[in-house]
Design a protein that fits this description.
alpha/beta; Rossmann fold; Neutral Protease, domain 2; 2 domains; five-stranded mixed β-sheet; binds zinc ion
């Protein structure tokens, strides 16, 4: 699950250098519609990697309501097979092409719903490409592919320009003129997909050539507004029982189920956290069409409607709703174990909501994964560092397991002494870690707050389990 809070520190890198090439490029205003399938790459990471110095916005509302008036490129990266493009969507795409716009549609996996739309343009995603791939135009560079790539079946090959082909001459990326506009269809796996790593800009030169060609049929006006079709444009906003849920027309069938589960989770989360959400935090829930995660930006919780088989199954959704909510709940200072504690509280809430067996199984499993690297749980801190002489720092590949499992183990140990330690910890944190009162909420301040919650000095215990903590360095005074 991506947390904007966590990843915002990772996006200061910059990698595309367009140099003199930029001067020859068209002005591009690109809209990426995430309405039929949310893509975590469709963000600043993508713009930095592939559209630097061009305008790029994300569109959350139904495709047929997207403002494309001052756009010349439309990305349709995916359509979840639980949804489909309806007649109004198809008309929107047709009209955009008629106006000279470029439409870029990319597929991977089983693109059933995408093929439904593509049929009317005489193309569909077909079989598996035989590597290596080769670009026929726009670049001499080798084409990088992540895993497998889909090939295209073209009804009338003469109407299409093949851009990338596989080693058996099957098209993998191709474009076709439709009126003044251009449609580009391609395997998704020849573009990067990591939202927060600008280094994932595979085949950037090839894609820049494609954007430039596809957008060339329509001029955009840099002096006219080109706006984000952000969440304000979502078709529905339902406020009831203190909750505020936003969703598009396509998400309407799932809204009631999400409302119901969120409403049932919130008081249980509050009980486990010991304090209410801070005013303004996590107050708005956005339903996103994916089974692949969500994020919290403090005020907004974006939740995947199909997470863990929801709405047919609810246990994983309880963990997930809690996970994202806890990211908001812990603010203003994120936790040193920000990801694991969010899921840990999720597992406790699962137990409280009738899924004790599965909740406890997940807690045990996380602890066992860490035990392999730290059998007595006395070697490493949250980052795999150690204060023990003669102990080697943890291998990078094991850091994640220890980061999660050790946090779980610490709280399970403390819970044996005080069953309410989680809520007492967050109560103490709310009181002693007020916004602006601390330089940073680090290991020392965390142990100080845990000590206050337990009513005893935990610094010696944390030192004995591998943490390099020092009471005198904590900004929070314990007064125990
Ligand atoms: Zn998270």
């Amino acid at each position: 699950m991506y947390s904007k809070l966590l990843v915002s520190s990772l996006i200061s890198l910059n990698c595309l250098c367009l140099g003199s090439l930029q001067a020859q490029e068209n002005r591009i205003h690109a809209v990426n519609s995430v309405s039929h399938a949310y893509d975590f790459h469709a963000d600043w990471g993508f713009q930095r990697q592939y559209l630097k110095d061009q305008k790029y916005v994300k569109s959350w509302c139904a495709l047929y309501n997207a403002d494309l008036s001052n756009a010349n490129l439309l990305f349709l990266w995916n359509c979840d097979n639980r949804l489909a493009y309806n007649e109004k969507d198809k008309k929107t795409v047709d009209n955009f092409l008629k106006d000279g716009g470029g439409v870029v549609l990319m597929g991977r996996g089983n693109p059933k719903s995408q093929n439904e739309l593509l049929k009317s343009y005489g193309v569909e995603f077909a079989g598996k490409a035989t590597l290596p791939l080769e670009a026929v135009r726009y670049t001499d560079d080798e084409v990088t592919v992540k895993g497998e790539a889909l090939t295209l079946k073209l009804d009338n090959p003469k109407k299409w320009d093949v851009i990338v082909k596989d080693s058996k001459n099957n098209p993998v990326t191709a474009s076709r003129k439709i009126g003044k506009g251009t449609i580009v269809v391609s395997a998704r796996t020849i573009m990067g997909d990591h939202p927060d790593y600008p280094s994932d800009s595979i085949n950037a030169g090839l894609w820049r050539g494609i954007w430039n060609m596809a957008a060339s049929g329509k001029n955009v006006d840099p002096n006219k507004p080109f706006r984000n079709n952000f969440i304000e444009t979502l078709e529905h906003r339902t406020q009831k029982d203190g909750m505020d849920i936003n969703y598009s027309d396509y998400m309407k069938p799932y809204a009631d189920a999400m409302f119901d589960i969120s409403k049932r989770c919130m008081p249980v989360i509050e009980n486990r956290m010991g304090v209410p959400l801070s005013p303004g935090m996590g107050s708005r829930i956005i339903l996103i069409p994916t089974d692949g995660g969500g994020y919290s930006s403090g005020e907004i919780l974006a939740l995947a409607v199909w997470w863990g088989g929801f709405p047919d199954k609810e246990d994983s959704m309880i963990e997930f709703v809690t996970h994202e909510a806890v990211h908001s709940w812990v603010l203003p200072y994120p936790e040193i174990w920000n990801e694991p504690i969010a899921t840990y509280v999720g597992n406790l809430v699962m137990c409280d909501m009738g899924h004790a067996e599965e909740g406890n199984r997940r807690i045990k499993a996380a602890i066992e994964r860490a035990r392999k690297h730290d059998p007595e749980f006395n070697l490493y801190d949250m980052r795999g560092n150690t204060n023990k002489e003669g102990v080697q720092p943890l291998a990078q590949s094991a850091v994640n397991d220890v980061h999660w499992g050790k946090m779980y183990w610490i709280f399970e140990e403390l819970r044996k002494q005080d069953p309410n330690i989680v809520s007492n910890y967050f109560k103490a944190k709310r009181e002693h870690a007020k916004a602006g009162s601390l330089k940073k909420y680090d290991d020392n301040n965390t142990v100080a707050v845990l000590s206050i919650a337990m009513g005893k000095d935990l610094f010696p215990w944390f030192q004995s389990i591998g943490f390099n903590v020092d009471k005198s360095k904590a900004e929070i005074e314990m007064n125990i």
